[in-house]
Amino acid sequence: FFWLSLNLWLFWKTFLLYYKGLEYYYLHQMLGLGLCVSRASASVLNLNCCLVLLPMCRVLLAFLRGTQKVASRKTRRLLDKSKTFHVTCGVTICIFSVLHVAAHLVNALNFSENYNEDFLALNAANYRGEVSQLSNILSVLVPGLTGVIMVLVLFLMCTASTYAIRVSNYDIFWYTHNLFFVFYMLLMLHVSGGVLKYQTNLEEHPPGCFNPNKTLRENMTVLKAFEETFPDYTTEPFPEDLPVPEPFVQNNFMRICSKEPKFQSHFPETWFWISGPLCLYCVERLYRYIRSNKPVTVTSVISHPSNVLEVRMMKDDFKARPGQYVILHCPRVSALESHPFTLTMCPTDTKATFGVHLKVVGDWTERFRDLLLLHSNQDTEILPIFQQRRYPKLYVDGPFGSPFEESLNYEVSLCVAGGIGVTPFASVLNTLLDDWKCYKLRRLYFIWVCRDIESFRWFADLLCMLHNKLWQENRPDYINIQLYLSQTDGIQKIIGEKYQALNSRLLIGRPRWKLLFDEIAKCNRRKTVGVFCCGPNKISKILHKLSNSSNSYGTRFEYNKESFS
Known about the structure:
alpha/beta; Rossmann fold; six-stranded parallel beta sheet; 565 residues
C-alpha cells in the first residue's frame, strides 16, 4: 500500500508540473493531456527501473544482513522482503509502461494533427497528417523503435515470470529474465531522442504575450488560449508610453514579447535514475564472477530416498552462516543456467566441508544427478578424496543471506518445514550439534511435515544425534521435535532401533496449528518467538495469520518465510 501510494503521489506531482508549468505551455497546446500522462508515467518508470535492481544485489543484502551495527532485527526483516519488493517494482513497471505507451500513441497522433506552423522546433512530425500513414507511425526512429522493442522484451519477461511457467519450465523464465540487460540498454537509447521540448526564455517571451511583429488577430488567438489555461497569470508592469491593444492590458499589467520563444530538449533524467543501480549491479556481478571462478572440490555425493541428492564440497576460504544459500553452476549441465540451493551443512573451525540437498524435480537437476552418480538408482556413493572419481566441474557462488539466519538470534524459535523445505533448518541443526551454548537460542520448536515416511530419512541421523547430545547434556527441553506424516502408506518402514527417538515423535495427519501456537504462547509468556517457515504457501499463510493474532499470554510471534517459488 505504501509503495502504491508513493507511485501515485509521484505520478500526480509530475502530472501537475507538466499541466501547469509555463515552460511546457506551447507543447501542452499541441499534445494536451497526452503530454502530462506520458511524462508522469515516465517518472514512475524511472523510480521503479532504478529500484528493481537493488533487491537482486545479493552480496549487498548479505553484507547488510550480517552487519549487526548496520542492520537491526527490524531492518533485517525488511531485507527479507527483497523478493517481494522486486516483484512489486516489476508489476509497477508493467502497469505504467502500458499507460506510457498509450499516452505516446496519443502524442504521436497529436504531433501530426496539431502541426505547429509558428514554432517548427516543437514539431516531431515533418508535416501535418504524417502519422496517418502506417509506415510513418515511428516517425521519430530512436524513441519509437527502441520503445517498440522494449515493449516486446517486457512482455516476454512478464509472461515468463508467471508462476505456471516458472514451475513447468524454469529455463524459459531464467533466459527471458536475463533480457533485462537488453531492456536497460534500449532504455538508455530511448530517452536520448529529445522529442519533447520545453521553452527556455520565459522572461523574454512569456506564454500568451503580445508580439508587435504579429497581427492583432494572431495575438488575440494566442492570448485567448493562454488565459484559458492560466487565468490568474500576469507578468510585468505595463509601460504607459507603449501603445498596446486593450485586451493585452489587465490590472495595469501586460504580457509583451521581446524575443521569439526558444525550445530545448530535456537532458535524459533516466540516466541519473538508473546509472547508479545499474553500475552497482554490474560491479557486483563482476565481483561474484571473480569470487566463484575457481571450481569446488566435490568430496562426496549421496543419493537419498524420494529423489533427493546430497552433495558435499570443499572450497578455500569459504565461510557461511546457518540459513544461507549458494548458487550452483555446472557448465556440463548448462553453460549459462545456475540455481540456488540452501546450505544444509556449513563449514566450521574444525571442518571445511559444506553441503547442499537438492530434490530432483526438473531437467537441470536430472542432468546434474546423472553426471554425479554412475547409476541414478544407486543409494549411496561416498568415496575418499584420493579415490573419488572425476566429478564434473562445479562452481559455487555465495553464500547469500536468507531469513533463517535470524533463527539463532531469538530466545525461542518455531521452525516449520514442509518436505524438502527442511533444508534451511538442517544447517541450523548441524550448527547446534557442534555447539549451542554460544547462541541466544534457548528453545527450538521443530515441526516437519512430509507426505511419505522415507523423506524423514534425509535428516533422521542428524535429528537423532542432536537429540542424544542434548539428553547427555541434561537439556532435553532445548529442542521439541514433532514429525507429521500426512499420508499413512508405508508407516511401518520407520520402525527400528536406530530411529527409536524419532518414532515416539512421529504423528499421523497434519498439525493443529492453533493449538500449537497456544501451547507455545503459554509456555513462553511475554516473550518474542521467531516463526520461520519454508514450505507450501498454504502452510505459510496459516502461520502468518496466526503470528499476527493476539493471545492472552503476552507472547509475540514474529513471522519469517521462504517460499519454494
